[in-house]
Each structure stands twice: as C-alpha cells, then as structure tokens.
Amino acid sequence: MSTTGYGYQALAPEQRDRFARLAAETDRRRTVLDRYVERERGFAFPVRSGEILRITCCDGPQVCDFNAFAADDPSEHFWSGRTRTLQGAHLSVGDRLWSTEPKMRPMFTIIADTVPHGALPFNAASHDLVYARCSASAWRLRFDRDMPNCNDNLTAALAAIGFPASHVHDAFNIFMTTGVDDRQRLFHLEPEARQGDYMELHAEMDTVVAVSCCPGGCSGPENKGLQVTVFAPLDAE
Ligand SMILES: [Zn+2]
C-alpha cells in the first residue's frame, strides 16, 4: 500500500551545511545563559534570533517539556500539531519547530542531538511530539491524587515573567522516548538519553522559551534536573 504524507520539510543542502558548521564550532561561541533547572521545576528565559539553546541531561536521563513564544507577540507560539505534521512524530537534527497561525514560521531548527537512537519496539523513538504535557487533572484522572506536573511547572515559570497560565501549550517532549503500539495506544519507555546527552536548537527568531523537568515518571526511576545553556555564535556578532 502506498502512503501519502504532507510534504516533509527537509532543510536545503546549504542550510544543512550551515547548521552542521554551527553545531561543530563549539569553540566559536559566547555563553549568554547557563542555568541549572532543579528537578520537578520549570524555568522561562529569552533566546534571541541566531542564538543556540542547549538542553543537557546533566544528572542522567530527564525528559524536558518545551514551550516557546514569539518574543514580540506571545499569541504566536510553538505549534505541536503542525510541527508533527510537517516534521514527524519524533524530532532530531534537521527538524524545525513551527509556530501557530497566521505566521506559521520556523521558530527553531534542531542542529545537534547526541542521544543514541536505537531499534525499539513499534518503532518507538526519542524526542516525542505525540504526548500531551502531564497536568494535575491528568494525574487525578489516572491516580486520583495531586502530583507535581509539567503544566504547573510551565505555568509557574511563565508567571515569573508575567505570562498568564493560558499561554501554556502542548509541549515538545525532549528526551522522552515514546511509540504507538499495535492497538494504536501510546506508550513510553525509559529514555535512550544518558548523562551528558544534549540537544541543541538554533533560534530562527526572537523567542521566549519555557522548560519543565517533567515529574511524570517518564525519565526512569527518579526525576532529575536539567542544564539549560544559551550560546551566541561569535560569527553573528
Ligand atoms: Zn510532564
């Protein structure tokens, strides 16, 4: 049976070469921000056009729920569904993160991913774009009790910079390893990521990013912190 897609958005060869160079030239960068985000907490911060955001599993495997906004108009934000349609259900190097209508433009391009991608059941893969963020309501539905969650982490992180709770949106779940089984049900596995693994995202516009160290039990036996680093390439200055 043949299949029809939606037109995978591959980078042009010259874009691929440029991003490969930016990822390789780690000695030609200035550090703009370097921040440890504690386990079960969130953090919001600006990432300007041309800067590179690195998110590192500094303590071991840890899923990072990622939200992003246009710095000049937060009603334009990361669009999980459109990105899934254009790039796929799991993202890696060369994939771009797209914003909402009416602009629908690339917000970030993934330029580095050190996670080893192995053969997993039902083609499960790392860096999930399928699962919704965990929330107090979802935990009450499943476990009938209140638990720490990404929705609250992202809400608190954004409140600290003056964004309302309604700005929290479906996340890109970096380092989360997920799949769809033969009954079309979602499942997650322990992350393929190991301590020291990181992903780098190149900002295509001025943004505000919010991250959550997911407390939802998808990171292995214990929840951990994440290191967030923003670099400015020296060539761009
Ligand atoms: Zn979560």
From TrEMBL:
Pfam families: DUF1989. It comes from the Bacteria. InterPro entries: DUF1989. Residues 37-208 form the DUF1989 domain. This is DUF1989 domain-containing protein.
